[in-house]
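2.7 Reproducibility. Because tokenized structures are sensitive to small changes in the input, we list the exact sequence used for Luciferase-like monooxygenase, including any N-terminal residues retained from the expression construct. No trimming or masking was applied before prediction.
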Amino acid sequence: MPTLKDTKFSILELAPVRDDKTIEFSLKHALELAKHAEQLGYDRLWLAEHHNMDGIASSATSVLLGYLLANTETLKVGSGGIMLPNHAPLVVAEQFGTLATLYPDRVELGLGRAPGTDQVTMRALRRGRQETEDQFPHDVVEILNYFDDPVPHQKIVATPGHGTHVPVWLLGSSLFSAQLAAKLGLPYSFASHFAPRMLQSAITLYRENFEPSKYLAQPYVSIGVPTIVAITDEEAQFLATSAYQRVLGLIRGQSLKLKAPVKSMEGLWSVPEKMSVDNFYAMAQIGSSETVKNGLLDLLEQTQVDEFIFTCDIYDTDKRLENFSLLMDIKHSI
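Resulting structure tokens (single pass, no recycling of outputs):
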């Protein structure tokens, strides 16, 4: 049975935009969080690619990664993930190969097969690209080959990129990527921070079908966990109302900008909407350090995962940084 001390703690950052702040503020806070994570000893910080969402500022993921890498020293930084169908594999390999050349052993590439946006924006992103049903597996293998050492007479070589051996992860919220990650022998991260329904099935499928590879000798699983940790349960529940309002905006097709917390969500959502938010946050750990510690221990016992990658939608940036400090205190208190 793994312990919290043995379990890696990481962060998934979406560069949330507050309703009273600029996008510049969000991007600079992402760097503040990266520096904070580095000081606290988090294993990695990833950025998520989303488009046409007013409350998420990490759309130009590789560009923002360069900003974080240039202003930190040791923290592993990567994508969680690059939505591969939106991009040509060679361009992704060149971008991350450039980052890995400038910042050796610090860059990781997590790949997803969802668009990370709505259908209209997806068409704008993929203009001129022809997609087929089985394109994602081929694109993943193509990127892996670009990061490898070139072979004689190879017609296309990623420069920079070749020989960098950037670690590649597969991300998913269903069984497809779990099966592909197992087949290719890659680490797997499940998006339970917003789609927890198939978590256990995906983990089981991945582990049972894992084939050792030159990338990984045995299965490695991380899962997304939303967190709101505060000094008391009551404060955490209050702070969590910002996250609830954000998901409510997603459900209604409204703004995703972070809103200030409220004393109560009564009157702000309907019963079905509350159920939808509860399902979205089924893996969320909200409360005092003691409450969240017990929740993480239960989650670890159920899943036996290697790593938690935490998200956090707290409005107050100081409280948001405190959330990650308290999480690391939990890890070291066991």
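The longest helix spans residues 233-252.
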